[in-house]
TrEMBL record:
Lipoprotein among keywords: yes
Record's subcellular location: Cell membrane
Coiled coil: none
Protein name (database record): GPC5 protein
Natural source organism: Cinclus mexicanus
Pfam families (alphabetical): Glypican
Family to which this protein belongs: Belongs to the glypican family.
Length: 368
């Protein structure tokens, strides 16, 4: 009553053994593909981790640099500016990790929060009544009177160009892991499991436990079983090309590292611009929001403190170098995996599964 290992000679198998063999080949095929995928997946996961660590390091550096700008140059508002600064960098981090947000909304939200502070602490430091209504009016007025000039829009443009590629790369790497995981758990068809049993276990039914499949026979069986996985070849090659494009975009003129390290400079220029145009801004705000309460004698506007570019710190240089090296190392590895899905049958028929050094092997029907 055998269904798969039918043979004219006497057999030592039963139908129940054939069913056990089918369960075994399904398990073995999954394990074999997992073993092949392991190195590729390990490399991608490792790069995702390294990329995120280097990115977080750059982000922390840029945030600390921005906070120190307020503490040294704009001390009257430093304490209150801490929260908007923190929110800005949190939003940037979430954007790169794929959150449903935009760089523009993050930057403009930051400048909306910053304007009431700049207006009440630097331009008109005598204001005592900064009520919620007045603060909200200042926030809304910011969008109309554009107190920060072109600097806020420039910051959006620069960050959008550099962060876009990083966001896409982060999403692409996650997609790569998803694809690999899916191939590991692809269902084994009934025809495939029967073919694998015939190839790997039917010799056992004749007592031929040391005979292994012929190479050509193995390739035919594996190609048939992995036809759906091999169909990924064209898309996988395209995926590798996309990774190459994204990594080159990240290393191009609008580099992530440079854009992040330049945030403090853009904010500094924006605040200076608002201070220089303080009288005009005050006149417009008074018309729109009314005149707030002032201290007696009205303090003079905070003095403008231009901040010079500080030298790059070692932390930034190390994170920058680390990210560049990881990027190059990763893309070189991924280029070598370009034919991964096209050659998966050959790789599974390599090693101990088939008979290579002997002229005697199993062809599915007999020993040849």
């Amino acid at each position: 009553d055998l269904q798969i290992c039918q043979h004219r000679a006497p057999t030592c198998c039963t139908k129940k053994m054939e069913e056990s063999y089918q369960a075994a080949v399904r398990r073995e095929r999954t394990q074999s593909i997992q073993a092949l995928n392991f190195e590729l997946k390990y490399m991608i996961v490792g790069h995702i981790t390294a990329f995120q660590e280097a990115f977080e390091s750059l982000l922390r550096f840029a945030e600390n640099r921005t906070s120190s700008l307020f503490e040294t140059a704009y001390r009257p508002m430093a304490k209150e500016a801490a929260e908007p600064v923190k929110e800005l960098f949190t939003d940037i981090s979430l954007y790169i990790l794929g959150a449903e947000t935009t760089v523009e909304s993050a930057v403009l939200r930051f400048f909306d929060s910053l304007f009431p502070l700049v207006y009440s602490r630097l331009i008109n430091p005598g204001i005592t009544d900064l009520s919620e209504d007045y603060t909200e009016c200042l926030r809304l007025t910011r969008q109309d009177i554009n107190p920060f000039g072109h600097y806020s829009k420039n910051m959006v443009t620069e960050l959008s160009k550099s962060l876009w590629a990083s966001r896409m790369l982060s999403q692409a790497l996650s997609l790569g892991i998803e694809v690999i995981n899916t191939t590991e758990h692809a269902a084994v068809s009934k025809e495939c499991s029967r073919a694998l049993v015939k190839m790997q276990y039917c010799p056992h039914c004749q007592g031929l436990t040391l005979i292994r499949p012929c190479v050509g026979y193995c390739l035919n069986v594996m190609r048939g079983c992995l036809a759906s996985v091999a169909e990924l070849d064209a898309q996988w090659r395209q995926f590798i090309s996309t990774l190459e494009y994204l990594t080159s975009e990240m290393a191009a003129s609008h580099e992530l590292e440079m854009a992040l390290s330049g945030i403090w400079s853009s904010i500094n220029e924006a605040v200076l611009h608002a201070q220089l145009n303080g009288p005009q801004l005050s006149a417009t705000v008074d018309k729109v929001c009314g005149q707030p309460k002032q201290q007696e004698g009205n303090l003079s506007s905070a003095s403008i403190v231009p901040v010079k570019e500080v030298a790059e710190t070692q932390t930034f240089v190390m994170a920058h170098t680390s990210l560049n090296n990881k990027r190059r190392e990763f893309i070189n590895y991924m280029k070598r995996s370009r034919t991964f899905y096209a050659s998966i049958a050959e790789r599974l028929c390599d090693g101990d599964l088939v008979m290579r050094d002997s002229s005697t092997c199993w062809n599915g029907e007999d020993v040849v």
